[in-house]
Amino acid sequence: MKQGYDIFGKAYGVMLRNDVHAPGSVDDMLVQNMILLDADSCGPLYAEAGKCPDMKDHELYEFAQQFRGADDKETIRKVLDCTAGIALHYDVDFMDMHFGGTEKEILQRETDWCADMARVGAVLLQCLGIPCRILQLADLSRAYYGHVAGEAYYEGRFGVLDFIYGYQFYDGKPISAWEILQNGDILNGYPPEYTGYFSAVAVSEYDPTDKNNDYSVSGPNEYTRKIIYADHNGKWLMGEDEPREQS
Questions:
Q1: CB contact burial 46-59 (16+ within 10 A = b; e otherwise)
Q2: Is 5-229 a CATH 3.30.530 domain?
């Protein structure tokens, strides 16, 4: 199975190595450990039911209980309404933003940064007994078009969730990332700029109870600042796609 920074190609590998999150932080490790979802990995990645760590001691456990619904689907919908609502009303200039930290810190400062909100959403669901892993997405036809979502296990299946946009992929049953990759018609009706994110998908398992997790907080870096403020039109600006020099 393909794993790590470069599974979306060299250019995206450069971008991911220059991410705003602190090197060695939990967010960086989720990218380093991500597994490309393809024909080789889909079997192992979907072979077993999702599992939750024991979250009763997590600092967001009590907070999460307010989202419990009549069933898992309704519970997920309530969590999505919360996270997407925060993202919708967030209005902070990129240069004033912070990235990473614990999920409680992220909730307190609020954000519309997809990687941070995906962690928040995954933790809230895990606190509610619903397994959820992280999905790294990339539009391989354009530069700098990555996104982070989640995939929860409920009703005996994995189903894609988007904590920024509030999407819950469901049609009589949860719809997995692998099913979306196999059948692009599932994305009919979604905005064209969004559907491109499913050009490539990777899966990262996240255990919020791991004592080795580094929750460092970082600020904007020069690399990402150039992406945010440049009119790149989906083209690589900083030589990310240039061939590596041979030593």
A1: beeebebeebeebe
A2: no
